[in-house]
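Mods, move this if it's the wrong board.
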Amino acid sequence: GLVELWADDVLRVRGSALFALAHGCEAGRPDSVRTEVVDTLRDLLVCTDSTARFCAAFAAQWLGSDIASLGPLLASQASVETDSGVRFTLAGALAAIGPRDAAVASCLEALLDDADERVRAFAAGGQGLTTSPPATFVARLRRSMADPEESAHVRTSAASSVAKYTTSEHAASTLTGLLKLRELFATSYSGESLLDAVGRVAAHAPTSAPGTSAREALQSAVDDADESTRLIAASGLVRIAAATRDAELCTQAIDELRTVLPRILVAAEQQQPWPWLEVARWAVPAMEALVALTAWPEMGVEADELRPVFTALKRYRFASTRTWAEDQLSRLR
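Not the wrong board. Structure tokens:
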């Protein structure tokens, strides 16, 4: 039925059909989105009906890296889109694809100056996975992260992205900025994402002065009353332990992560997205930390313990989650 509606004369009907298709993720595996879907997306993204454009942009956001080839078109449309709701949704689609393409990276960088805070936050916190985004894009993210006039939402979104892109070269200075941000926003809704960012970057500069401060912050948070905060803090400590081969520190933190592994697997195996979304904020850093430990045999974390989670998530409806799962599988020994 949905396929027949793609040819409807009414643009909004075609857009609604595309919206429903993407929401149900009938498109399936990466790189297998049907030609009709891509063609319909291409047409509706530039049509005259703003509602149909919104539907197309929303569908692109759900399909994410499955339609990375449309990145330049999404970027082109975002640069001229006048409807703020459509532009916001286009920013989400571009963020889901990630700054792997020069046109997409350039557009995301430009959207960091958008008048709409929601657009800036989406542009700053791209879900797309890439190990080598353009240096200019990362530099612009750092400016957003440090901008005292910027909103907490945008600054913490930028911080999360910067943490993923930081290498040892800039780790100490980045960590100093992250620790300052955490002091400002530790009790806000952004506190957990900042704690995760601190743990990620601290593993690149564990013996530096800010690295020591980060470790102290994580050790304090691992005793927090909130389970999510404890798990994110434990994940950060495990990252630091893996980087320094500190067996004592790792032993203190690893039990917390092992305890929740069965719950993570149950959530990953569900056909509906919400069980995974409910745990992802702490499950993602926990699983990444455990993957790092598979390269440290003395800690006793076996790849076969973790593989079922990522195998289950390869069937997940969000393209960004499937891409992440495949990336983690490739890291397992």
